[in-house]
Design brief:
The chain has 346 residues and is α/β, with parallel strands linked by helices. Helices cover 35% and strands 16% of the residues. The protein starts with a strand and ends with a helix. Bound molecules: NADP nicotinamide-adenine-dinucleotide phosphate. NADP nicotinamide-adenine-dinucleotide phosphate binds next to α1, β5 and β7.
Length: 346
Amino acid sequence: MEKVALVLGATGQIGRAAVRALVADGWHVRAAARGLRAGAPWPPAWNVELVHLDREDHAALATALGDGCDVLVDTVAYGGRHARQLLALADRIGSAVVISSAAVYVDDAGRGLGEEGVRFPVPIPETQPTVAPSDGGPGAGYASEKAALERELLAAGAVLPTTLLRAGAVHGPHSVHPREWHFVKRALDGRPVRILAYGGRSRFHPVSTANLAELIRLAANEPGARVLNAADPEPPTVAEIGAAVHAVLDHDAEEVLIEGPSPAPPVGETPWSVPEPVVLDMSVAQRQLGYRPVVGYLDSLPETVRWLVDAARGRDWRIVFPALVHNYRTDYFDYLAEDAWLRRHR
Ligand SMILES: NC(=O)c1ccc[n+]([C@@H]2O[C@H](COP(=O)([O-])OP(=O)(O)OC[C@H]3O[C@@H](n4cnc5c(N)ncnc54)[C@H](OP(=O)(O)O)[C@@H]3O)[C@@H](O)[C@H]2O)c1
């Protein structure tokens, strides 16, 4: 009998790649989203069923499950409440694959991503400590909510075997949070420089949606209660990313490197800028699931860059990529500040 997958968040960047990988692997896919994103992107031959629902609506999710599914892929789960929502429906879900984040990790001194002095082992194994879970309310944040989600699903592994994927910096077409826009926009604006803090050596492990989808596919076929890192084979430095994006767009820019942090934020800062590397260990996924990346970061770039240029053409990028504005609250494109710093610096 045909295996059935319900993909929650199916029209997002991860969902689209997951649907593609599952269909190619012979799964029948029910694709769920609220319907705010652009229409059904699948060819009729794929026989994907599109269901419009808000995952906060428990009854609607239960209806979409119908008689049940072999795997539920959840790309938009946060907090213990979503863990409990899935567990309440576990009798109709064979297993789950849920997207978590590398943001849950803390270093050996308990410092999380973005905190002063944080220094992770290189690479970070899944056994690295994580932030304290928090389920909404004061003090709750993205990482602590993901930690709560993980904690509750892993504890209930006998009821609903769940693979939690701790994703690095996700990239690919159809992103509303495309870090690569940092360099794409500079090329489109004809900026003559790439100014990079930390000597351009920052490494913040990316993961292509194609590699995430491969992990989802493998986990769907081999259910288990586990947590796995999700990252590309080679984490490039931010200098390599900038040069590669500009090479795709045939844009010449001088690289100006700043040792240490930005002397005049946001000059030299990028969405990948970290003082110490954040590199994920992929050996457990290789051992447990036989994971082999389907694409490397640099090879995947041209498709993403082309998509970004098309998506933003003639439109306000802040509306097309709202998460870039919402998540960073930094004006990375403050060219006046850059030029002023360059004049002083030179
Ligand atoms: N971006 C990163 O670098 C990064 C890093 C680590 C982990 N992650 C994780 O990646 C996940 C985000 O995936 P993504 O990048 O694919 O997101 P995305 O591109 O924003 O897509 C989100 C998808 O979920 C749907 N959706 C949103 N809210 C929904 C709801 N309440 N009910 C049903 N569907 C809903 C959206 O469609 P509608 O709006 O039409 O509903 C869309 O299909 C999150 O779990 C995030 O924590 C991201």
